[in-house]
Amino acid sequence: MKTKANLIIGAAVATVALYSCDTKNYTEQDRIEVTSNLENYVDSVENAVQMIPVHNWSVIDERYDSLDSRAEKVYNDLKVEDDNIEMLEERYETAVKNGKAEEENFERTADMHMKNVETWWDKTAADIEKGTKNTADDIEEATQESMDWLEKNFDKLGDESKKKYEEITMKLHKD
Fold first, then answer.
1. What is the C-alpha to C-alpha distance for residues 43 and 39, in angstroms, rounded to an integer?
2. Once rounded to an integer, what is the mean pLDDT over residues 45-69?
3. What is the pLDDT of residues 75-130, one digit of tens each?
4. pLDDT attached to residue 4
5. Contacts (Cβ under 8 Å, ≥6 apart) of 55
6. CB distance 134 to 128 below 8 Å
7. pLDDT confidence of residue 150
8. What does each C-alpha distance from 152 to 16, 35, 133, 146 come to in angstroms?
9. Cβ 93 vs Cβ 45: under 8 Å
10. Which helix (H) or strand (E) holds 140?
11. Helices 83-129 and 159-172 sit at what angle, rounded to 10 degrees?
């Protein structure tokens, strides 16, 4: 009788242990942590797109997808509603959409300023060949505004624009 009672109790404990291991890999603390991690990341993306116009979107998306996937696993395992994750996903998508729009606007503005400077440079470079010296003092007002904008935003420019800007300013300040 003792053996039979021990077997029944043992089977019951084993069933409970098996059930709890099978369905509860994560805790409430894990849910709080993954939600916080995802929210902090979305916050940082929202801040970054306001401060810096150009981003590596594939790296940003990759990190978001990793955090989102982990959060979904925890929420699914705990069988809780993922309203928090859905809200964060909407915020993230809005931040990315706004960031990409800002990036496109920045690129258009950079191209406009670079074309203005290049046009001026091409027009005045012919004078250099004739022996007329061009200096930074000879820059027209609109071109100077473009030069100032490009200098101010130099770190945010694409590599090609940086190279063109450096070449022109080097030639301009050569003498």
1. 6
2. 92
3. 999 999 889 899 999 999 999 999 999 999 989 998 898 888 888 878 777 665 55
4. 44
5. 48, 49, 99, 103
6. yes
7. 85
8. 65, 38, 26, 10
9. no
10. none
11. 30
| Tokens 């990315």, located at residue | 96
CA distance 96 to 42: 10
Q: Which helix (H) or strand (E) holds 137?
A: none
Which ranges in the chain belong to alpha helices (H)?
A: 2-23, 28-51, 57-78, 83-129, 141-152, 159-172
pLDDT: which is higher, 123 or 56: 56
The residue among 106, 101, 100, 104 whose CA lies nearest residue 60 is 100
Tokens in use for 71?
């959060």
Locate 78 and state its tokens: 């705990």
| Residue 6's pLDDT band (cuts 50, 70, 90) | very low
What is the end-to-end Cα distance of the chain in Å, rounded? 106
CA distances from 46 to 41, 93, 98, 105, 175 (A): 9, 10, 9, 17, 45
Residue carrying the six token digits 């990409």: 100
Q: Residues near 51 by Cβ (< 8 Å), separated by ≥ 6?
A: none
Residue 157's region, left for phi above 0, alpha for psi from -120 to 50, else beta, is beta
The pTM (predicted TM-score) of the whole model is 0.66
